[in-house]
């Protein structure tokens, strides 16, 4: 029994491996008839892209041009997202040959062109050890200026939400400060009240001392020289 099991085990493993490999090859392949219609799909291994091509070549979708264009836009976007920028531009050109235009195609063209330029710039700096010259710098500067002119604006909803948060934070801080300030005002009023009483007391003292001086001076002024003659 053990000998039979040891002989059958490698056969079972080999059969299972061949089945999995065959399933992978079948899943990761585009139909030959589809490759004739879309040679751009040759060499593709991404399952999502292969699924898009199989949808294009499906008999149900062959007459639906709008659906086929939308699927091919998804293919171009997927090419660009995976880093196949040249294939993305080729897909865009195939759609434009059919007079199909959309903002998504423009975005794919822009992003693919930026990625290609960025890779060339890194190759220039790291491998060739050189900088841009007058011929290459001027169009790069024009592109940079144009990007600056059409840069995205700030979303008003996010800005208003941020303003509300800032205002709420300021209001809470003001409430906390108001709760702490009354104690300080009480101490200040308590310290100022004794000063007012002292000033009033000093004023009263000065007025009372002035009255005896006036009463003393009046008898001396009312006396006449004839009073002395009467006494004699």
TrEMBL record:
Annotated spans, Disordered: 156-232
State the UniProt keywords alphabetically. Signal
Where composition is biased (Low complexity), the residues are 195-221
What span is annotated as the signal peptide, if there is one? 1-23
**Bias (Polar residues) ranges:** 170-194
**Top-rank taxon:** Bacteria
**This protein's name:** Uncharacterized protein
- Please give the organism: Acinetobacter amyesii
């Amino acid at each position: 029994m053990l000998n039979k099991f040891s002989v059958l085990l490698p056969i079972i493993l080999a059969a299972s491996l061949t089945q999995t490999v065959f399933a992978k090859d079948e899943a990761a392949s585009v139909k030959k008839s589809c490759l004739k219609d879309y040679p751009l799909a040759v060499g593709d291994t991404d399952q999502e892209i292969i699924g898009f091509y199989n949808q294009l070549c499906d008999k149900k979708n062959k007459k639906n041009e709008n659906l086929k264009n939308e699927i091919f836009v998804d293919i171009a976007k997927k090419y660009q997202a995976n880093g196949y920028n040249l294939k993305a531009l080729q897909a865009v050109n195939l759609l434009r040959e059919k007079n199909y235009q959309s903002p998504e195609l423009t975005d794919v063209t822009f992003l693919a062109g930026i990625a290609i330029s960025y890779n060339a710039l890194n190759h220039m700096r790291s491998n060739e050890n050189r900088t841009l010259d007058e011929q290459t710098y001027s169009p790069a500067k024009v592109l940079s200026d144009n990007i600056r002119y059409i840069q995205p604006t700030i979303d008003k909803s996010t800005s208003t939400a941020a303003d509300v948060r800032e205002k709420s934070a300021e209001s809470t801080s003001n409430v906390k400060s108001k709760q702490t300030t009354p104690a300080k005002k009480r101490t200040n009023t308590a310290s100022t009240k004794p000063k007012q009483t002292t000033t009033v007391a000093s004023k009263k003292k000065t007025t009372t001392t002035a009255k005896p001086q006036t009463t003393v001076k009046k008898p001396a002024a009312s006396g006449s020289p004839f009073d002395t003659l009467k006494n004699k």
